[in-house]
RNA sequence: GGCGCUGUAGCUCAAUUGGUUAGAGUCCCGGACUGUCGAUCCGGAGGUUGCGGGUUCGAUUCCCGUCAGCGUCGCCA
């Protein structure tokens, strides 16, 4: 070893010892007569001193040293002069007086230094990721990620889960997200697909009798990115046999409790709260509500039906909805201009026709530019139903169910931030359960699977498959942390009759089902146990546990919004010979399109 | 694909209503300094204002296009 210690471990107990350290030069403070150097590695920073008492050779070798050079120093650990301790670093009580200094490798002048005061723009950070990853906060996050994954694996192992690796090169099944395709050289014209999830393999593991499966699985989806979405991401993928929803939820409940305790030192009460999908949509307008704060949606459609205010009345009469949320103390935050801002926000992003609002005056009455359209009694009824208090702002969307959900959800999220309605450090775990089996396909006159086509309906809803599929609820459950979908799973269909029924509703005849999933359908005939599972988005869990705002900071080498890697410049144009070998010819790009 | 924000020195930012030679801090280079830890002090270098076009006597500023990063809607079973 080139070093005897790391830069984060020396303290008063080492005083008098001769040690060697290796690391990167974080900062040089040159006083002419002597130099102080902050030497950094991932464990911390140690101040090293070279002055007139140091050997001439050491003075000589330190002369050209610049920030981010990699050096090795040997020296004696000494206490600092009285009053010169640095309480900001753990090694701040000591310093290393150098007797030998060796440059292990110089560094060209970096475009930015890792711990500079102002964070460089993200594109620069991504381009020079090796520098960015030297930053303390990135190192903390990657350590956090490692600890979380280890804790998940330990928990899984403790509960008899077997870790199995499934293929990365698989079969394309054009359901759901777009596949990343990989051309086959051996079979020109044919393609593998990278897994969107190991879904089918893990079900087959159940058929094979492996009872409890787990995998830290890389997954790929060729869809557009978001702050919380990467094209390549990591799931904790699990599957269990002889279980129902409660069993799977129970396993994850326990895992979250342990993670919260081990990683954050937080005590989480079990069972984690559950609400149904219908409830979530009615109360929060979304299937992954942030439940760190209240502000639930209030339905005013009944009142709207009675008023002469045409805007509300016509919406209510046409079977649509007038729904509201109350921004507590919102008047202080949102002036007329602020409300205009919110109006624009819901109109432009969600196609809402408008945003109606009322201020609650000191005496509890509602005031607004539209107030004159209402009877005093109607205003009083709105005030009482929304339970709005003086200083509050009532925000109302009159629109279709879908638009009101989206707009009110977004408004709620926004006022939660603007009005600081929750402690950003708080962690809230919950479940949303009983998702609908199907959602209606806007284009064709058919149903789409909300999860995937192997999701089992609730036992109690089996009849509805025949009578009213839209009302059929699934044995599906999503884990929600602070308003993010951190994971989701289902109990699978193991009854071939039910499976046929579901395929039928999805517009899949026996033949096309056989073509797409034949291997799974075959496997299910060979003694498939009742089974179900879940997948947790590890990147998102890390983001949430780390209190971070985007998923890129949780991934060592993330992609940009256009799905490129700024450091390696992937994807890239390949050699013509590679394409020829694969039997691929690129279509001419048509500029007229 | 739509909408929005951003792009000025290596880095982080400023530049009044469209007006002289585009500034500051930091980094970098040179010098001074024996206790700093955002060291300090002196001096210096450093610019295709992302790129292309337009309007104008004059554009960092206004307009159009384009590229890149970010956010968001669509999309993500």
Protein architecture, described:
It is a single chain. This protein is of the alpha+beta class. The chain has three domains: 12-105, OB fold (Dihydrolipoamide Acetyltransferase, E2P), CATH 2.40.50.140; 138-275 and 428-555, BirA Bifunctional Protein, domain 2 (2-Layer Sandwich); 293-418, 2-Layer Sandwich (Gyrase A, domain 2), CATH 3.30.1360.30. It contains 18 helices and 22 strands. The protein has helices at residues 56-62, 122-127, 129-132, 136-158, 199-207, 245-264, 277-284, 301-306, 310-317, 330-333, 336-350, 376-386, 401-418, 464-467, 496-505, 510-525, 538-545, 576-582, and strands at residues 18-30, 34-41, 44-51, 70-79, 94-105, 162-163, 181-183, 191-193, 212-220, 232-241, 274-276, 298-299, 321-327, 356-360, 366-367, 393-399, 429-433, 438-440, 447-449, 476-481, 484-491, 531-537. β20 and β21 (484-491) form a beta hairpin. The termini are far apart. The protein binds one RNA strand of 77 nucleotides through β1, β2, β3, α2 and α11.
Q: What order do the helices and strands come in, and which of them pair?
A:
Elements: E1 18-30, E2 34-41, E3 44-51, H1 56-62, E4 70-79, E5 94-105, H2 122-127, H3 129-132, H4 136-158, E6 162-163, E7 181-183, E8 191-193, H5 199-207, E9 212-220, E10 232-241, H6 245-264, E11 274-276, H7 277-284, E12 298-299, H8 301-306, H9 310-317, E13 321-327, H10 330-333, H11 336-350, E14 356-360, E15 366-367, H12 376-386, E16 393-399, H13 401-418, E17 429-433, E18 438-440, E19 447-449, H14 464-467, E20 476-481, E21 484-491, H15 496-505, H16 510-525, E22 531-537, H17 538-545, H18 576-582
Helix pairs in contact: 4-6, 4-17, 11-13, 15-16
The chain binds one RNA strand of 77 nucleotides through strand 1, strand 2, strand 3, helix 2 and helix 11.
């Amino acid at each position: 070893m080139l070093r005897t210690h790391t830069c984060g471990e020396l303290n008063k107990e080492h005083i008098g010892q001769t040690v060697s350290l290796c690391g990167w030069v974080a900062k040089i403070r040159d006083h002419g007569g002597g130099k102080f150097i902050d030497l950094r590695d991932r464990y911390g920073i140690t101040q090293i001193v070279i002055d007139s008492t140091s050997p001439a050779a050491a003075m000589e070798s330190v002369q050209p040293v610049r920030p981010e050079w990699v050096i090795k120093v040997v020296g004696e650990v000494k206490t600092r002069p009285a009053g010169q301790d640095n309480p900001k670093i753990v090694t701040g009580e000591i310093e290393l007086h150098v007797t030998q200094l060796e440059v292990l490798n110089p560094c060209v002048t970096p475009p930015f230094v890792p711990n500079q005061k102002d964070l460089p723009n993200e594109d620069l950070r991504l381009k020079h990721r090796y520098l960015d990853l030297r930053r303390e906060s990135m190192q903390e996050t990657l350590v956090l990620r490692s600890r979380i994954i280890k804790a998940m694996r330990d928990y899984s192992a403790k509960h008899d889960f077997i870790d199995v690796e499934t293929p990365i090169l698989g079969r394309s099944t054009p359901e759901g997200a777009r596949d990343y395709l990989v051309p086959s050289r051996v079979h020109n014209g044919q393609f593998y697909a990278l897994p969107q999830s190991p879904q089918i393999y893990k079900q087959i593991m159940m058929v094979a009798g492996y009872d409890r499966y787990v995998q830290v699985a890389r997954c790929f989806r060729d869809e557009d990115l978001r702050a919380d979405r990467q094209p390549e991401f990591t799931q904790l993928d699990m599957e269990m046999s002889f279980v129902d929803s409660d069993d799977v939820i129970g396993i994850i409940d326990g895992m979250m409790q342990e993670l919260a305790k081990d990683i954050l030192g937080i005590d989480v009460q079990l069972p984690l709260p559950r609400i149904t999908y219908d409830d979530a949509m009615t109360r929060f307008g979304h299937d992954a509500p942030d439940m760190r704060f209240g502000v639930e949606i209030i339905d005013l459609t009944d009142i709207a039906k009675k008023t002469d205010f045409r805007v509300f009345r016509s919406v209510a009469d046409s079977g649509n909805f007038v729904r509201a949320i109350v921004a507590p103390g919102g008047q202080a935050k949102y002036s007329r201009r602020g409300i205009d801002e919110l109006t624009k926000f819901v109109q432009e992003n969600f196609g809402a026709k408008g945003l109606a609002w009322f201020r609650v005056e000191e005496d509890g009455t509602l005031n607004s530019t539209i107030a004159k359209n209402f009877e005093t009694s109607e205003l009083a009824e709105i005030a009482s139903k929304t339970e709005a208090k003086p200083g509050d702002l009532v925000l109302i969307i009159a629109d279709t169910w879908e638009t009101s959900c989206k707009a009110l959800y977004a408004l709620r999220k926004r006022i939660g931030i603007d009005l600081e309605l929750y402690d950003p450090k708080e962690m809230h775990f919950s479940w949303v359960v009983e998702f609908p089996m199907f959602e209606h396909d806007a284009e064709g006159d058919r149903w789409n699977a909300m999860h995937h086509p192997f999701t089992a309906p609730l036992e109690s809803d089996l009849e509805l498959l025949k009578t009213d599929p839209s009302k059929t609820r699934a044995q599906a459950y999503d884990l929600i942390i602070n308003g993010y979908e951190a994971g989701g799973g289902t109990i699978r269909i193991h009854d071939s009759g039910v499976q046929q029924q579901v395929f039928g509703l999805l517009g899949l005849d026996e033949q096309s089902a056989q073509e797409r999933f034949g291997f799974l359908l075959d496997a299910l005939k060979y003694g498939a146990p009742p089974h179900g599972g879940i997948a947790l988005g590890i990147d998102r869990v890390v983001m949430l546990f780390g209190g971070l705002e985007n998923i890129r900071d949780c991934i060592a080498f993330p992609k940009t919004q256009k799905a490129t890697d700024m450091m390696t410049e992937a994807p890239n144009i390949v050699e013509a010979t590679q394409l020829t070998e694969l039997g691929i010819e690129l279509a001419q790009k048509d500029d007229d399109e």
